[in-house]
Amino acid sequence: xxxxxxxxxxxxxxxxxxxxxxxxxxxxxxxxxxxxxxxxxxxxxxxxxxxxxxxxxxxxxxxxxxxxxxxxxxxxxxxxxxxxxxxxxxxxxxxxxxxxxxxxxxxxxxxxxxxxxxxxxxxxxxxxxxxxxxxxxxxxxx
Length: 142
Hints:
By secondary structure, the chain is of the alpha+beta class. It has helices spanning about 55-65, 130-140, and strands at about 10-20, 25-30, 40, 45, 75-80, 90-100, 110-120. The strands form 2 sheets. It has a 4-stranded mixed beta sheet, sandwiched between helices. Strands 3-2-7 form a 3-stranded antiparallel beta sheet, with no helix packed on it. About 30% of the residues are buried.
């Protein structure tokens, strides 16, 4: 097996799910683990070796909230790689946006202790750099 001698970042994907209601809402999870245990965040997590980054976003959304969306329904918001964005180490994330007509039933699963829908105009403080990601996603929503 080849061992790469240079440090490598971790890769994650986050999924922003927004409703198509007159007053749109977004799906957030409450983190069940450190870092940021108890804080609200976008559903997401680490990419596995046998999946693409968009597949990771869809899988993490399902694993943490029970919401299932197809790969064809997500679109890239951006790639986020600011130094220090994750206290666990160097981490790069790709954030994806998808829409649902109305809030779906959700529950906190896997490493999420809760999942809830929040009005886009009244978000709680968010973990990591998820406030920056949300700003970019909201700009895409219009």
